[in-house]
Amino acid sequence: MAVVASCAFVIPAFSAEQPDDCQSFIDGFEAYKQKDFDTSQGKLRGVLEKYPDSPLRDVVLFWLARSYYKNGNQLEAARYMSTFAREYPDSPLLALVEDDLNGLVVRYEKGELLPTLAGKAAPLGG
Predict the structure, then answer these.
(1) Distance (Å, whole) CA 96 – CA 66
(2) From CA 29, how far away is CA 91, in angstroms rounded?
(3) What would the pLDDT profile of 12-51 be if each residue is shown by its tens digit?
(4) 58-62 mean pLDDT
(5) How confident is the model at residue 11 (pLDDT cuts 50, 70, 90)?
(6) For residue 76, what are the CA distances in angstroms to 29, 117, 126?
(7) Helix (H), strand (E) counts: the chain
């Protein structure tokens, strides 16, 4: 909830230039809370694609990684969480990452194969 509330503080910073990234983030976060991870991932990926320099990039990466994790796609979860940790090493959100997800990031960064949906391992970077 605090993450969504923080969106209100960011809105004045980009008003007319990027009006939809905040709403898309909220929609993605709400879908996450409803356990609709496919919708959540689509909305959050859309923010990254349409607004790569959004001031919400950190929270989008964080919740996108968690959405993939909750949906069982370890490869994408690790990839997005690795990106988040690399780009935002001082983020207080890092303290909220589950140990299992942190372990996936370590394995991902070592180049191990990680399962995607349906438990199939996929080569990294592919």
Answers:
(1) 10
(2) 19
(3) 444 444 458 999 999 999 999 999 999 999 999 999 999 9
(4) 98
(5) very low
(6) 17, 10, 11
(7) 6, 2
Using the structure block, give the residue that is written with the tokens 């959540």.
40
State the residue for tokens 């690790």.
Answer: 78
Span 101-112, pLDDT tens digits:
999 999 999 999
DSSP 8-state code for residue 93: G
57 φ/ψ angles, rounded to the nearest 5 degrees: -55, -40
Residue 40 CA: distances (Å) to CA of 2, 3, 37, 71: 18, 15, 5, 10
Structure tokens at 53: 């320099």
Q: Hey, what are 75's tokens?
A: 């490869």
Count CA atoms closer than 13 A to 99's CA, side-chain side: 0
What is the reported pTM? Answer: 0.81
User: Which stretches of 5-119 are assigned E, i.e. beta strand?
Assistant: 114-115
Q: Is residue 55 a contact partner of residue 22, using CB atoms and an 8 Å limit?
A: no
| Residue 43 · residue 62 · CB < 8 Å | no
What is the token pair recorded at 118?
A: 């349906």
C-alpha closest to that of 51 among 13, 88, 16, 18: 18
